[in-house]
């Protein structure tokens, strides 16, 4: 749905008065891309001189991050940029939550999870998990797990006796895809 000329003018006026394109977009509920395009087309610069952040705000941001708040949450709460909050945390040697999550993701990958699995488990993007693993020199490639014929026989027997493939996967610690392949190869009737 196209925006009205009135909305466009309000966004441009906000940018002229000192708001960034991102701030104006959020304020008037338009996309950042639209605000940026309108500013570029109108020849309006959204570059501003850096704002001096008071020591009081800095202390509050540092205290919030030290207390467990993420840099982005602290930045939003105190009206500063995310990178500024991150810089404050780094200046004070605060172990940021992102760093703790990164460490957990890397530990999970080292213990055998794939980057995709670790990313899903810790709710980070696959790209971040992959980049962190690459930067840390951690390989997320796992050697395939080999299950002996005894385990395969037990799994298939349990399925014949009424266990579902999902239940068998959980009980025996075998990937569900592997179990389904075994079932299809043996033409076992699963319930």
What's the structural blueprint in terms of helices and strands?
Blueprint: H1 5-16, H2 21-28, H3 32-42, H4 55-66, H5 71-78, H6 82-91, H7 97-110, H8 115-121, H9 126-136, H10 149-160, H11 165-172, H12 176-186
Helix pairs in contact: 1-2, 1-3, 2-3, 4-5, 5-6, 7-8, 7-9, 8-9, 10-11, 11-12
Notable characteristics:
4 domains, 65% helix, elongated, mainly alpha, 12 helices, 191 residues, single chain
Largest sheet features: none
Global outline: elongated
Number of helices: 12
Q: Spell out the helices and strands N to C.
A: HHHHHHHHHHHH
Q: Work out the number of β strands.
A: 0
Secondary structure category: mainly alpha
Query: Hey, roughly how much beta strand do the residues contain?
Result: under 5%
Please estimate the helix content: 55-70%
How many structurally independent domains?
4
In short:
By secondary structure, this protein is mainly α.
Describe this structure in words.
- The chain has 191 residues and is mostly helical.
- It has four domains: 5-42; 55-91; 97-136; 149-186.
- 65% of the residues lie in helices and 0% in strands.
- It has twelve helices and no strands.
- The longest helix has 14 residues, at 97-110.
- It is elongated and about 75 Å long.
- The two termini are 50 Å apart.
């Amino acid at each position: 749905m196209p925006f009205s000329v009135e909305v466009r003018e309000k966004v441009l006026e906000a940018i002229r008065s000192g708001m960034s394109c991102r701030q104006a977009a959020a304020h008037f509920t338009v996309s950042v891309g639209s605000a940026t395009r309108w500013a570029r087309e109108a020849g309006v610069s959204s570059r501003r001189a850096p704002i001096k952040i008071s020591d009081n705000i800095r202390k509050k941001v540092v205290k919030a991050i030290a207390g467990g708040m993420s840099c982005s949450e602290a930045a939003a709460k105190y009206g500063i940029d995310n990178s500024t909050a991150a810089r404050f945390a780094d200046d004070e040697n605060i172990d940021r939550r992102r760093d703790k999550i990164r460490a957990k993701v890397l530990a999970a990958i080292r213990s055998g999870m794939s980057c995709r699995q670790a990313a899903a488990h810790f709710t980070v993007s696959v790209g971040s998990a992959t980049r962190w693993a690459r930067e840390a020199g951690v390989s997320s490639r796992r050697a395939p797990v080999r299950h002996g014929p005894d385990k395969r026989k037990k799994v298939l027997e349990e399925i014949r006796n009424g266990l579902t493939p999902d239940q068998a996967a959980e009980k025996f610690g075998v990937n569900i895809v592997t179990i389904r392949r075994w079932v299809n190869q043996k033409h076992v009737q699963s319930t």
